[in-house]
Amino acid sequence: MSHTLPSADGQDRCFWCHGSPLYVHYHDHEWGFPVAEDRRLFEKLSLEGFQSGLSWYTILAKRENFRAAFANFDFDRVAQFGAADVERLVQDAGIVRHRGKIEAVINNARRAQEMVAQEGSLAAFFWRHMPPSPSTGAVVPAQTAESQALSKELKKRGWKFVGPTTVYAFMQAMGLVNDHAPGCVTRAEVEKARAVFQRPGA
Asked: What InterPro entries has UniProt attached to this entry (predicted)?
């Protein structure tokens, strides 16, 4: 079974990204490229929590609405959200109106502040959990030993909606692994980016 499909431009891409220019753009320019910016790391983990039980495309299509609703995922600002903000967000039709997930993002913003105080940055903490062996992209699991360990550590620190499957999707997207399929036009680009990436905290 092939894990790639040809796109309109004749290039082979991961099978999951077809069907929308928005999805193709995300696949080509974001997914798997290494990220060291704390705000983006917090945003992605927050959005992966919202994605639980839904398709990533649903969340991606609403991403700008989420950014507007959650102060562009500036976790220092989100940490100040209170009960009135929760009620505002539950009424916001532009996002996923799940009270538990909304409250989790606010909780996690406070945990993110604690992590920065303890570790220096979110990036330094998360990149410690990069798997020691590179992914071939031939088999893409739902979770791994590394995502299980990271999930366990986050839960111990009080983070919410960070199960091992959610965490592995975060690791894939933020470049801790390169799970672009063999033959995908973007796989080599991601590998190049990862090769020159300065791993935070290393």
From this structure: Adenine_glyco (IPR005019), DNA-3mA_glycosylase (IPR052891), DNA_glycosylase (IPR011257)
Please give the Cα distance from 106 to 54 (Å, whole number): 20
How far, in Å, CA of 199 to CA of 196, rounded? Answer: 9
**Neighbour tally for 163: CB within 10 Å:** 18
How big is the CA angle at 178 (ends 18 and 160), to the nearest 5 degrees? Answer: 90
**DSSP H stretches of helix in the chain:** 21-29, 38-51, 56-61, 63-69, 75-78, 83-90, 99-119, 122-127, 145-156, 164-173, 187-196
Q: Whats the size of the chain, residue-wise?
A: 202
Point out the residues that are catalytic: 26, 48, 56
Which is higher by pLDDT, 132 or 108? 108
Q: Convert the pLDDT of each residue in 4-45 to its tens digit.
A: 888 888 899 999 998 889 999 999 999 999 999 999 999 999
